[in-house]
Amino acid sequence: MTTITLTRRQCLLALAAATALPAHAQVDRPVRFILPNAAGSGVDAITRSAQSALGKALGHPVVVDNQPGAGGIVGLQQLARSAPDNYTLAVVSNNVVIFPSLYKKLPFEMPGDFTPIAVVGSTPVVLVVNAKVPANNSKELVALLKAHGDTMNYASSGNGTILHLACELFLEAAGVHARHVPYKGVGPMLTDLIGGQVQFAAAALPSVQGHIKSGALKVIGVASAKRVAAAPDIPTFVEQGLPGYIVDAWFAVIGPKGLSAAQVQEDHQAVVAAFTDPAVAEAMAKQGNVIDVQSPEHSLAFFRSELARYAAVTKKAGIELQ
Asked: 177 φ, ψ to 5°?
């Protein structure tokens, strides 16, 4: 057997090299990204598109863990109970700031039980109507609702979802009303919208682009502050005289409460690196997503403003706490 003897200098150099590695790389353990969304959802597609790049940036493989139970509350509860060791993070959507306005009791506090890492970007929301609805723009739809709002229905993917509240925000901005018909998911909602059982709905742009191109649905406008690169021909509602109607289906990365400033910085840098990776950027563009990574500080302020915004919307819409 050959005996290898290391000098004191060699030992110190080896120790320095080990401690210079990213925190994630010092233990052979994957980083788990909880998704409080079902497989196949928009957030799922976004996370899986960036999974490899996130693993490379973090210095360790990333495992995606879908936890859609109770509308996503189960997954968020798991994150809130996780140790702040930087091995459990989550990718979340608007739901995380809507839940406090829908439920009397939650097993976590938002944002107190979490650490914001970054608001990463958004998926544009569009307002679409059944092909037979005699409206092609915001002005015509508003006029139609003023004349026939009592008999017109709008669909959503569920009571209190972002697509429900996006329609409520439109009605509020336009000063009109219509009846809400909630569905259990986007699929059934679009089926009845195309079939004419309901007249209009808000939807994430990627989910309806094919139906718009085929003529099954007509697009009224995009609810972003400016036109989106994925569909530059769709006008914003700001352009159409409704400057107050801006809403996006955003997504963000958060961690459990108690992450150190160094951990947050490491994670934030990894998110920036992953979502600016050319392959990921191309995938995001194809999905219609707009990437604009925000700082942890800005993300916390954003969460707080969104909490207040949706609390006001749910109250005005008369949505009862569950």
From this structure: -145, 160
Burial of 14 (0-12, 13-18, 19+ CB in 10 A): exposed
Residues 6+ positions from 159 with CB-CB distance below 8 Å: 180, 182, 319
Backbone phi and psi for residue 35, each to the nearest 5 degrees, phi listed first: -115, 110
Q: Say whether pTM exceeds 0.90.
A: no
Which homologous superfamily is 124-222 in?
Answer: Periplasmic binding protein-like II (3.40.190.10)
22 burial (CB, 10 Å; 0-12 / 13-18 / 19+) is middle
223-270 pLDDT, tens digit each: 999 999 889 999 999 999 999 899 999 999 999 999 999 999 999 999
Of the candidate CATH numbers 3.40.50.1970, 3.40.190.150, 2.40.10.10, 3.60.10.10, the domain formed by 30-122+249-316 belongs to 3.40.190.150
